[in-house]
Records
---
Amino acid sequence: MIQKLKNIYHLLTAVIAVLYYKNPGKKIKTIGVTGTDGKTTTTTLIAHILKSAGKRVSYITSVSATVGGKEYETGFHTTTPSPFAIQKYLSMAVKNNDEYFVLETTSHALDQHRIFGVSYFSSIITNITHEHLQYHKTYKNYVLAKSKLIKYSKRGYINKDDISYKYLEKILNMKNVKTYGFKNNADYSLDISQKLNISLPNFNKYNFLGAYALCLELGIKEAQIFEAIKSYKLPSGRMEVIYNSNFKVIVDFAHTPNSLHEALPSIRAQHLTTGRLIHIFGCAAFRDDSKRPLMGIESARYADLTIITEEDYRTEDPNKIALMIAEGLLKSGFRYQDEFIFGKDKKTFTIINNRSFAIKKAIEISKDGDVIVLTGKGHERSLCRGKKEFLWSDTNEAIKAIKETFYS
């Protein structure tokens, strides 16, 4: 009942915002991007392809809003902004004579009617995996919420290889849907990494293919798409190597079992040659408790050493979160080690709830050839402890720890 009342409030707010800004969503071609993982990469790649092809385009991602060539902050932990912010940015894009607006769209925004008044020209679902069940309660509800984006669009694109496809196929009118993938006779199945002779992690092959299919059907020539892909750079905090000397430090936004399952083996394959993979991560509060041990299992599957730490624990006990993650590591055969002796043996983990101390510990125990991977925060600029947001950057903390450890 409380959530229904909140949704009514969001809908009324959205209606007022649409009226206030004179319904700009009807005056621009909006492209929606949703999914559990890969939204930001796919959104920015679509925008980059369109811009490279000479189109006027603005876009919003979880990192920021780029409208009329200017970048705007959208707040902490924000993907799809409030209805008034959405309509404001759409209005700005219309005044800038933009033809396209690419909008990273969450299941929450869809369920809460925050995107009311947005007319989606095309949309894409990257994948739907284990996440946000604290809000949606069941995976089926989560899929239903995501599917609304396709229902609101003239044309939709769906990853046919994803587990969610069998559910989406039953929910949606597939006449207006195109599929992409590599395993199940999809409409689009081009391996862009092979075609262009570039190195791409498996999960990005799907993101790039989805963006390729959507842009191709928008009328962008294939040669233009390929040229744009060659010059594209991943967003901040996505598989970002922030230190590369005798050991490496990589920052990535992976924060679900599926994204860890994709990111960690890719990092092992691309970056680890002689040393150990040291993984630092936690799990945010009020998202999906059941994913915590699954994330521990994924870390144990690919890391040599794991440090469980804080990640936006809000008003939840960080020790409780850490112990739930630890269940998965223990189940996978990892052993717990006290932080004072941690690092001597492989297949061990420790718990250091202060993220700064966890990063410093990883730096201190690093050896030549090691790769330290920080996941969960990526580009984010704050860390929520209790009810307060603290300024934060995994990149800055890692560089600070390196300087203190080796150059002070």
---
Amino acid sequence: MDKMDHIVIKAASEIHFSFLEENDLHVSKEILKLKIERDEIFVLESRGKCIGWLRYNLFWDEIPFMNMLFILEEYRGKGYGRLLVQYWENLMWNKGFKKLLTSTLATENAQFFYRKLGYKDMGGFVLPSEPLEIMLIKEMV
């Protein structure tokens, strides 16, 4: 059996709340609940166990922006992150979006991952006491 045969990606629901609350430390409980209601979080499950998620919103209320992509440590490097991003990209394409955005810190390896997926640097900014935040864009054609 192929390692991807047991993978399911779906919009997060209330049953995923405790997993997300425990692992996504960048947003409040209230925001998590709201994003679940708005279908702005997708979970990746392997054999019924949540192993990662993708959270997004609309930048300037018009361009999908991937806020968070996270795969649990023991599942990294196996193609699951790529699969989750491609799922999201296809969903956004089907909704009529032609540009996608994300960002990552210059000190994180995620920048190389996003570039492999076709995202291009478009600038950056520095918050006080933080490294450079690299903004990346992908134009869907």
---
Amino acid sequence: MNFPMKLRARWGKLLERRRQGAAMHTILFTHPSCLEHDTGLGHPERIDRLRAVLAALEAEEFMLLDRREAPAATHEQLLRVHDAGYVDSVFARLPAHGHGALDGDTVVCAASGEAALRAAGAAVAAVDAVLGGEARNAFCAVRPPGHHAEPAQAMGFCLFNNVAVGAAHARTVHGLKRVAVIDFDVHHGNGTQAMFWDEPELMYCSTHQWPLYPGTGHAAETGVRGNIVNAPLPAFADGAAFRAAMEGTVLPALDAFAPELVMISAGFDAHARDPLAGLNLGEDDFAWATQALLDIARRHSGGRLVSVLEGGYDLQALARSTAAHVRELMAG
């Protein structure tokens, strides 16, 4: 096998772990329907984003990924975090032909409902697989993204809040008491924060550029019992500033919370190449953050971690950053 020398040792380690038991491997959840969500010409949240991610994960170093199709989320699963009227309205507003809009940024087509169900269903299936002992961790390569979606409102390219649906499933079906979501997308996850605000057994931690869309995420926003942790970064902040925010604010809060499951809203638009914001992170910063969060998972949740794709709008940066992230998940 013509395998790069610098990755050969890691690959051998992964093979050995795979031989030791199925619970050591990483599962990739995705679905072809997520490639049918057409947002129209010129929209940044476009089909090519997921194509770039999936192409990157076809590299030889990812041969041991357990690839599975995401199921569709059920109505019941969505209603744990979304209002029933809102869920019904999303499907009622899908156009039979062409494009429609749920807000000024969130464009939909006839296939968008199925894509959104599969994206949320991926998070649910990943939680089931990880908590059921089938894998140590999982990555959901899906779209539309989810962290801006509020209980009764679509926002920022997001229809349903995928990671929140997964977190609610972990509590309701698996009986977990403490679930943490860490969000390193460049945009603050206002939807996840809103859903977690009054839930002290759920923690939401976010690093993001501030001020920036959607305007939430000030450090003073802490939830009803300090379960919301925001570490905003100024425009042009680099990897050193990001790591300092993680080490000084986010990681200590997670250690104190001691989550039984770690979940990641994995947005890669804080990359220096991304056109929609102004932070200056690189692939090595995302790899470092993944390692740090895997350490948290090992200390508190038996290594159990679920990651769900959010933003990232430069195709090259998105592909490379996702590869760096999944590489660490497989090694962790």
